[in-house]
Design brief:
This protein has one helix and 14 strands, in the order E-H-E-E-E-E-E-E-E-E-E-E-E-E-E. With 157 residues, it is mainly β.
Length: 157
């Protein structure tokens, strides 16, 4: 099992020019404490480079600080991109906004879905995601500090 610590993940994202804790400067507006309004069409996307993730995935921070917990992000992948089998300490909430995809459960069960879709997982739940024939965009929220544990892909069921 490969474990990417919060410190390493933050260092990798900072190296790409995007910090987990940084609010986007373009398209993000605040009208008071804990109020964030984002024009998603104006967001700046940056490559997300983490050990265990193939190249091609991009991140845009919406709000919060993934290193501290309570972070909210958007991820964008090219068609055919596979997020390998992985888990997080934190609970994880997805809202799949664009693109067909397959959810792969820890036991190898595969569920094909189309956007929009909602996924809620407790912490320590291994899962993989496979983007279909179109680019995929999805929202994620982590309630606890971000970490990533990559696991072997389960056999297909």
């Amino acid at each position: 099992m490969l474990r990417v610590s919060v410190v390493a993940a933050v260092a990798l994202v900072v190296a790409t020019g995007t910090s987990f804790g940084e609010q986007p400067t373009k398209g993000s507006y605040s009208f008071g404490p804990d109020q964030t309004i984002v024009d998603i069409g104006m967001l700046a996307w940056a490559p997300l480079k983490l050990d265990g993730l193939p190249e091609g995935i991009e991140i845009a921070t919406l709000r919060g600080d993934l290193a501290k917990g309570g972070g909210e992000i958007l991820l964008r992948t090219p068609p055919g991109y596979v997020v390998p089998n992985h888990s997080h300490t934190s609970d994880e909430l997805y809202v799949w906004l664009k693109g067909p995809f397959t959810y792969v459960a820890a036991d190898g069960t595969r569920q094909q879905m189309s956007a929009p879709a909602y996924i809620s997982l407790p912490g320590q739940t291994p899962h993989a995601l496979e983007c279909g024939s179109e680019p995929c965009v999805f929202y994620l929220r982590y309630g606890r500090p971000f970490d990533l544990q990559v696991h072997a892909m389960p056999a297909h069921k």
